[in-house]
Amino acid sequence: MDGILFIDEAYTLSGGKGGHDFGQEAIDTLLKEMEDKRDRLVIIVAGYPAEMRAFINSNPGLASRFAKTIEFQPYSPPELIEIFKGMLRKEDLHLAPDWPEAELTGWFSSRLTDPQFGNARTVRTIVERIREAQSLRLAQNGAGDLQTVTAEDVQEALASC
After folding, report:
1. What keywords appear on the UniProt entry (predicted)?
2. How many CB atoms are closer than 10 A to CB 159?
3. Which domain holds residue 25?
4. 47 and 8: one domain?
5. Is residue 139 part of a domain?
6. Cα(53)–Cα(14) distance, rounded to whole angstroms?
């Protein structure tokens, strides 16, 4: 009470297939609480646009209580590159001068229309895969700079994503 409840991937509540799925019960409880305690409770639901539209349309009470929709556009490839560089900095990594920026930018561009593209989550996955590729490369070579990400590391990561 007197706060905000944020439910990410809220559409999963309405996707039940029977059995021991408590999604509908959760929705019914939310609707009641939103009505009974509307002056003490804020609920924000989030998720992929198409799935959220289906969620809101799954119950007439949801549409009337979630009247405001804010749709966030995906990051652009240059913004994703900046997020990528920031994540590397946070891990104390730096890019070799010959890192394939154009290849990574193109990779992002080619995936922007994929409904499952995860924006910054995908960037995080790439950084994790880069760490794995870098570790394998360093283990095979027996030596190297632990803070430098090479073109090879980036290409290996993209190939595995």
Report:
1. ATP-binding, Nucleotide-binding, Plasmid
2. 9
3. 3-65
4. yes
5. yes
6. 11
Q: Which two tokens stand for residue 83?
A: 């997020």
153 close to 88: Cβ distance less than 8 angstroms? no
If asked whether residues 39 and 114 sit together in one domain, one would say no
- pLDDT tens for each residue of 56-99: 988 888 988 888 899 888 899 999 999 999 999 999 999 999 99
The reply to whether 72 falls in a domain is: no
> 């409904």: which residue's tokens?
115
Distance between first and last Cα of the chain: 42
Q: Is this structure's pTM higher than 0.85?
A: no
In CATH, what number is assigned to the domain containing residue 153? 1.10.8.60
Same domain, 25 and 97: no
The 10s digit of each residue's pLDDT in 130-153 is 999 999 999 998 777 899 999 999
DSSP annotation of 14? G
